[in-house]
């Protein structure tokens, strides 16, 4: 029975907590942390077998596997504790890993497994195969509803008036590393693609704001010795968080099921 410590009581964290609490996995939820104490307490009250509400060090100490479903800043605080504790981790705020490269190397040295789900995209197996040869180009174009971009640092700092847009508009072009800093709450696709591919500084990202959009559309183009492949995924937002794609939530569940060795019969 795997002991799981959960950090984050939001849309995906709540789904994961309910999945474990429902008894469908050979796992036991042993600790929960969220910066928003009342939110964490509400989730605990909804569980049949609630774990204690814990500090980050307590989560790491209690768990075999830590599941991060909170934010990039939470992962920056959590990841060193996990590595120094010699524990494994499932990371959902993947963008923060681009700032934790030294700790990723430390994790490899200590034998800590860092699990990254495919998230809101598909085709990472094809990219992995392509990397057996030379890959020259990885491009990501993300089209997002305006409501999913509100409050992003890039939008706020540049005073982009999203509410005044009347048609699809390119609001960002740059590297995956730059995209993750510009849109920390919505750029995990860019981070996952770059970590699986040719790197954060070589992966090109464009973000389009779509005023009447109701889905997150990701178009990935990869070119190399193998030829060219293009993957298009259209994700509906998770019902309780427009910044999260439904597929990302399902991907987190699928990754946890795989880590735990499958669902119970």
Compact summary:
Helix content is 36%, strand content 28%.
Question: Can you put this structure into words, describing what you see?
Answer:
This protein has 265 residues and is an alpha/beta fold. It is 36% helix and 28% strand. It folds into 2 domains: 131 residues, Rossmann fold; 118 residues, Dihydrodipicolinate Reductase, domain 2. The strands form 3 sheets. Strands 2-1-3-4-5 form a 5-stranded parallel β-sheet, with helices on both faces. Strands 7-8-6-9-10 form a 5-stranded mixed β-sheet. Strand 9 and strand 10 form a beta hairpin. The two termini are 15 Å apart.
CATH architecture of the largest domain: 3-Layer(aba) Sandwich
Fourth-level CATH superfamily of the largest domain: NAD(P)-binding Rossmann-like Domain
Order of secondary-structure elements: EHEHHEHEHEHEHHEHHEEEEEH
Number of E-type strands: 12
- Look at the helices and sheets and give the structural class: alpha/beta
Distance between the termini: 15 Å
Task: Provide the spatial order of strands within the biggest beta sheet.
Answer: 2-1-3-4-5
Level of helix content? 25-40%
Rg of Cα set = 18 Å
Shape: globular
Largest sheet: 5 strands, parallel
CATH class assignment of the largest domain? Alpha Beta
Low-confidence stretches: none
Number of alpha- plus pi-helical segments: 11
Roughly what fraction of the amino acids lie in strands? Answer: 25-35%
> How many domains comprise the coordinates?
2
């Amino acid at each position: 029975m795997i002991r799981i410590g959960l950090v984050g009581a939001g849309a995906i964290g709540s789904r994961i907590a309910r999945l474990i609490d429902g008894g469908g996995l050979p796992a036991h939820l042993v600790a929960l942390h969220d910066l928003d104490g009342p939110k964490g307490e509400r989730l605990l009250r909804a569980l049949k077998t609630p774990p204690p509400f814990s500090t980050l060090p307590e989560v790491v100490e209690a768990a075999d596997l830590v599941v991060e479903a909170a934010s990039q800043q939470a992962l920056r605080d959590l990841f060193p504790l996990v590595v120094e504790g010699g524990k494994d981790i499932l990371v959902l705020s993947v963008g923060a890993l681009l700032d934790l490269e030294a700790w990723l190397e430390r994790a490899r040295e200590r034998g800590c497994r860092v699990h990254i789900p495919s998230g809101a995209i598909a085709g990472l197996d094809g990219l992995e195969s392509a990397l057996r040869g030379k890959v020259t180009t990885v491009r990501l174009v993300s089209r997002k509803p305006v409501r999913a971009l509100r409050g992003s640092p890039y939008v706020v700092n540049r005073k982009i008036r999203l509410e005044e847009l009347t048609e699809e508009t390119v609001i960002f072009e740059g590297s995956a590393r730059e995209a993750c800093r510009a849109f920390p709450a919505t750029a995990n696709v860019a981070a996952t693609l770059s970590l699986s591919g040719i790197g954060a500084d070589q992966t090109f990202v464009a973000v389009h704001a779509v005023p009447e959009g109701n889905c997150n559309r990701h178009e990935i183009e990869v070119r190399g010795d193998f030829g060219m492949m293009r993957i298009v995924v259209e994700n509906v937002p998770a019902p309780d968080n427009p910044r999260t794609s439904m597929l990302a939530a399902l991907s987190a569940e699928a990754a946890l099921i795989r880590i735990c060795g499958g669902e119970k019969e």
